[in-house]
Structure formats: C-alpha cells, structure tokens
Amino acid sequence: MAEIVLCRIDSRLIHGQVMTKWVNQSQANRIVVVSDSLAADEFMLEIYLMSAPAGVKVECLSRADAVKNWNEDQFGSGRVLLLLPDLASMKEVYEGGIKVTDIQVGGLGGAPNRKVVFQNITLDDADVEKLISLQEAGVNIIFQTIPEDVPQDFHTILKKYNN
Question: What InterPro entries does its record include (predicted)?
Fold first, then answer.
C-alpha cells in the first residue's frame, strides 16, 4: 500500500522549485494530485505533468476517484506526496477515508474576504471551519510554504486570523 509521506494543500499545485524541494524533503517518488477540475481538463493536466520534478511519477485523480482508489487499496505503492488545491477537497477526501495524520498548508491565494495569515497563505471563515473540523478529528495542521520556513502551527495561525 502507498505511504502518504506529505499531504500538502497548495492552490498552485505542482510548481517549480517549491515542489522539487518538497519532493526531495519528503523523499516522495510519486505525486498524487486530487483535483476535480484538473482531472477533467486534459490540456491543463498535460502542463502540470510536464512541470513535475524529473523521475517522479505524477497522477491526477478526482476527489471521488482518490477516495475510491484509497479505500480499495488501489493507490499503488511508493512514497506519495498527496497534493490538493483547497481545504474543501482535503475535508472531502479525509471524510471519505483518506485519514492522514498531518496536513501542511502551503499556499492558498488571495481573494475578497480572505486574510493573509502567513506569507502567501490566506484564509476565509469557511477555511477556518474546515481546519477546525480536521484538527478536532485529530489531524496535526501546520503552515509552511517552503522547507526552509519554520512551520507555523494552526493555533498560532488562528490567533493571527482572529486579530
């Protein structure tokens, strides 16, 4: 069975040096992207696949397919970096059976009604609700954009959000 060595939330998904650093840091040999929109867009999927680090197998699954494959032990083998674009996707796959113990929030872009909480990471009230729910389920949540950053725990981030 596959081992999820890093579960990362990043709206940019696979992107250049940052992803190469995380693959190296986690020693992942596979990236599984969970994104309904990317799984349905062959053109964009090709672009993302071409931007993956050399020697790393990448596949993209819809939320439903990711849950189904995980629960049926069809995720394959290897060390997986599970990559999701948003917290809604994370909460859905977690509740569907992909029970990760740790989540790294690495990039959630800005938009109206979102607050910057750490570097390029923004949250809104719906995100905070999802994070609280995951934390209450026993998930350890950290915020870290690159390996060189000192990880910020969710409690610290929540204080920033509420100020």
Answer: PTS_IIB_sorbose-sp, PTS_IIB_sorbose-sp_sf
